[in-house]
Amino acid sequence: MKQFFIFVKKEFYHIFRDRKSLLIIIMMPIVQIILFGFALTNEIKDSNIAILDNARDESSAAIIQRLDASRYFNVYKNLQTQQDIETAFKTGKVRLVVVFQPKFQESLLHTNHAQIQLIADASDPNTATTVTNYATNIIGDYQQQLNEQLQVPLQIKPEIRMLYNPQLKGAYNFVPGVMAMILILIAAMMTSVAIVREKEINTMEVILVSPLKPLLFILSKAIPYIVLSLVNVVTILIVSVTILDVPINGSLFLLMAESLLFIITAVSLGLMISNFTKTQQEAQMFSLMALLLPTLLLGGFMFPIESMPLPLQVVSNIVPSKWYYLIVKDVMIKGLGFSQVWKETLVLLGMSLFLLAVSFKKFKIRLS
Predict the structure, then answer these.
(1) What is the pLDDT of residue 11?
(2) Position 364 pLDDT exceeds 70
(3) What does each C-alpha distance from 284 to 39, 129, 188, 273 come to in angstroms?
(4) Cα–Cα distance between 97 and 122 in angstroms, integer?
(5) 155-163 and 113-121 as β-strands: parallel, antiparallel, unpaired?
(6) pTM for this one?
(7) pLDDT tens-digit readout, 271-316
(8) Rounded average pLDDT over 326-333
(9) Residue numbers of the domain that contains 83
């Protein structure tokens, strides 16, 4: 029994000596419970909405005030014309547009019924359905209050219109999300494992004394995964169009160019991970923890980011998948051009340059 406890003690020493594994063991449960606790919720809060008030009367003002006062909506913008609606959705910051008919209150009091149009961005069908239900319930509460006050059966009828995805197909939302998840895992994790493998099987010394420069060595490891990732993009798009009936409404060239940029960003992440890990197992665990969970929870395609606490919203900005998901959804589903996605493109480009600079610098230090 004494020998048994000696071996147990020895194993604890091994665990405590391996700082990286110990950090993963201790920190992973904490990170996961915080992320899942705040991100895993079906409730959608603080969604930005735009208002087109053609009535500008007491009743429309009361409904707008109720929408803005609820925890579900923020009145982000007041529109002036019907043409402003599409422009508002193109910004990607508006989930819902509420349109009041002219003489809204007059129609309600004289004919006992009036109409409100609710136009939602259905590229995310679950969120679109939820926000229209929230708005319908708030309007229904106002209608009930009026009926109790006036003792008249007034009826406010919301007319719901879904943009970009009238049939509310879930594939319209999950195809861009799955593209981001697959590319980040294949390009980043496989690149990091490929380089770490050279260290683990002790072939790095042979490479060091070869005429091949470090930059060319890194590129030789990265290029195959860039090519394979592009093949994956083409495969996903073919399956999406032919089987899932998800259209490519925008420029295919732009979509492929943005995908290439995201793949380069993911490969850069893999290169950086390879600098901080020594074994393939470490590289895989670190990639799964640092890439898979943030992509699933903070990428925006499973859970609305605006419903999360502010610290998680800030953290989501450093997740590359978030920006690629927005680009794919805008180009592929909404049919927008480069003028609408240049900011997201610039973010991915900046991430790629930063990660590549860090990776090359660390790699050279490690080789010297």
Answers:
(1) 59
(2) no
(3) 24, 38, 10, 9
(4) 12
(5) parallel
(6) 0.82
(7) 888 777 777 777 777 777 778 778 887 888 887 888 788 888 888 8
(8) 93
(9) 47-163
CA dihedral over 280, 283, 286, 287, signed as positive or negative: negative
Q: What pLDDT is recorded for position 365?
A: 44
Judgement on whether residues 158 and 174 belong to the same structural domain of the protein: no
Are 224 and 303 in contact by the 8 Å Cβ rule? The answer is no
CA-CA-CA-CA dihedral for 50, 55, 59, 65, to nearest 10: 20
Strand (E) or helix (H) holding 239? helix 214-242
Close Cβ partners of 74 (under 8 Å, ≥ 6 residues apart): 46, 47, 48, 49, 68
| Residue partners of 111: CB distance under 8 A and separation at least 6 | none
- As for how many domains the chain has, the answer is 2
| Weakest mean pLDDT among 232-246, 263-277, 293-307 | 293-307
Contact assessment for residue 49 and residue 100, using Cβ atoms and an 8 Å cutoff: no
Residues 138 and 180 in one domain: no
Residue in the block written with tokens 């969120």: 127
Q: How far from 132 is each of 49, 98, 126, 137, 363, CA to CA, in Å?
A: 11, 10, 10, 9, 51
- pLDDT-derived band at 367 (thresholds 50, 70, 90) equals very low
- We report the CATH number of the domain holding residue 140 as 3.40.1710.10
User: Does residue 298 contact residue 39 with C-beta atoms inside 8 Å?
Assistant: yes
Same domain, 128 and 145: yes
- DSSP codes, 336-356: --HHHHHHHHHHHHHHHHHHH
